[in-house]
Design a protein that fits this description.
With 130 residues, the chain is of the alpha+beta class. It contains three helices and three strands; from the N terminus they run αβααββ. It has a domain of 75 residues. Strands 1-3-2 form a three-stranded antiparallel β-sheet. About 5% of the residues have low confidence.
């Protein structure tokens, strides 16, 4: 059990959509002090999962930070709406298993015979660097 896991447990036990907390309240929940630099850097409170261990705890609990005020030493944890498995599924497709946009641009570009699309448009383009 890590130092910040208590914050995750605390947030999971909350029923509200928004949990405003002061940095002091967070320290009481975790049973220790926040890192010395955390209160002065808003980036420390970002929702980037690679940011720090505490960030992973509030994200895993289903929350994001908002309204970070480092001067007033407070933050709001907002519950993230969980998407249903149906909404996370792949986009619906038509008969045949193709996406509805498949072929949407068909016929808009024509390449005349004798044109090699793998050749440079300007044969002397390489000479510019010599």
């Amino acid at each position: 059990m890590g130092k910040y896991s208590r914050l995750g447990e605390f947030l999971r036990a909350q029923r509200g959509k928004e949990i405003p907390m002061t940095f002091g309240e967070i320290e009481r929940v975790i049973g220790g002090k926040l890192p010395p630099n955390s209160p002065q850097y808003p980036a420390w409170w970002s929702n980037n999962p690679t940011n720090n261990v505490m960030t992973k705890e509030w994200l895993a609990a289903g929350f994001r930070t908002e309204q970070v005020d480092t001067k007033a030493r407070k933050v709001v944890f907002r519950r993230v709406e969980q998407s249903s498995p149906e909404s996370a599924a792949a986009p619906r497709t038509r008969k045949g298993g193709r996406h509805p946009l498949f072929g949407a641009l068909k016929g808009t570009v024509r390449v005349t015979s004798g044109i090699d699309l793998t050749e440079p448009a300007d044969p002397d383009w390489g000479n510019a660097y010599e």
